[in-house]
Amino acid sequence: VGDIAVSDEARLIVDEPVPTTIKSSPQSITRYPSQSAMFSVSATGSGTLTYQWFRDGLPLSGATNATFTVTSVSATDAGAYTVTVSNGLDSATSTEARLVVKEVPAISARNGGPAFNLGGAATLDLDALEGEGFTYQWFKDGAAVAGATGSSLSLSGVTSADAGSYGVVISNSAGSVASRSFDLTVNVIRLSNLSIRARSGAGDRLLIAGFVVEGSISKPMLVRGVGPTLVNYGVTDPLVDPVMTLYCNVGGEQQPQASNDNWGASNNATEIAAAAARLYASELGRDSLDAVLLPTLSGGVYSALVPGKNDSEGIALAEVFDGDLSEERTRFVNVSARCQVAQGDDVLIAGFVVSGPGQLRLLIRGVGPTLTSQNVSGALADPQITLHQMVQPESRVIATANDWSSEANVAEIESVSTRVHAFPLPSGSKDAAMLVSLSDGVYTVVMSGVNESTGVGLIEVYVVP
Questions:
Q1: Rounded distance, CA 257 to CA 48, Å?
Q2: Within its chain, how far is the Cα of 216 from the centroid?
Q3: CA–CA separation, 258 vs 304, rounded Å?
Q4: Cα–Cα dist 28/81, whole Å
Q5: Would you state the pLDDT for residue 14?
Q6: What is the pTM of this model?
Q7: pLDDT at site 130
Q8: Which of 79, 280, 307, 358 meets the CB 3.0–4.6 Å disulfide criterion with 56?
Q9: Which residues is 449 bridged to in the sheet?
Q10: How far apart are CA 155 and CA 111, in angstroms?
């Protein structure tokens, strides 16, 4: 009988399988179109783990890793995402994570628009964004705007060159998204002609026509002091021989720029006549005693004084024409006049022409009693103003004002006065003021005294940016 050998003992150990467990479920994500979105899961379990991702309960082809990435999100990717983890023995499914796809960010204008008036300010803002770490680059007509890397874009003193299609590319770690475009338009609407008609005399009765030009580009202006030619328009007591001097306020001092007496004798009389014809100014006889200048002006505060030779007195008309409307960066923003105000032909009349599409917002004031605080004697105690639009063959009244504190929009008048740097009017004063929005046309503002009172008055017209 042969020998029997017995092996050493071997033990069979059967481990309990570790159940598949989701340790960390994917988290919900908010994204904008074209950004990326990544979901991830952390799981434990016996053996080799396999993964299958689902959107709204349907399996996603090829989505079999612990992470799932949508490289460029679109609206169709929105939904509820889950992942099932399996090891062949059992499986576990994560809690639901949602991918929210927001609409493409939109741009809005903070202070109006999409049409802005010439010289105004435009601020473009984005819709509120969800997320963090954003950077920005603004574009106009497809080209990057240099230095425009903030969440908003501010434009000041807009011109037609600022019109166009604006957009912004927003970026963070999830990628970039382009906003919806915003089409900005600019209404090239402005004051193209200013005029003041009043009685001019000596001292405080002198006709002083002031105007403010905004912009750094020099351009020609036609400035006229008309007296004797007014008889052709029914004025029976004109200033027979006006002498005009143009001043510019430089550092608080009035510095003379040019003067004229009898325009026909000027060296540039032919050029003046051509400019007047081009600008549709009324014709002045070459031998008339009216005064005319053709200066080149840029931004500044100007005043035209129109006294009579030898302290004579009579009705005079001061006019200022924009000599080059094609250069829109330099424009009128204010006209004013101070002189004696009476009745009949002796009322104070400010005329202006609004040119261009859209509507031009204006603040118009007739100041009387407040002039006393500025050391003006004999101020008009209770002025009233009436705005007319010239509609051939006559004019029609479109607004009146008296006692500005009694106006329904007194708070707005006060706010706008501050914005255009007009000196304040005391609450309860008898000065007059109105805010109007005017379209293309010819307008006049007549200032007179209540109950036929007389005195020195100041009329002002401001362009509201």
A1: 93
A2: 18
A3: 10
A4: 9
A5: 66
A6: 0.76
A7: 83
A8: 79
A9: 383
A10: 11
Report the candidate in 124, 103, 128, 108 with the shortest Cα–Cα distance to residue 35.
Answer: 103
Amino acid found at 91: S
367/198 Cα distance (integer angstroms) = 15
Q: How confident is the model at residue 249 (pLDDT cuts 50, 70, 90)?
A: very high
Name which of 45-59, 68-82, 189-203 the model is least confident about: 189-203
How far apart (Å, rounded) are the C-alpha atoms in residues 261 and 255?
A: 18
CA distance 96 to 39: 11
- Calculate the dihedral angle through the C-alpha atoms of 276, 282, 285, 286, rounding to the nearest 10 degrees: -10
pLDDT band at 359 (very low <50, low <70, confident <90, very high): very high
pLDDT, average across residues 254-279 = 95
pLDDT digit string (tens) for 30-56?
A: 999 999 999 999 999 998 999 999 999
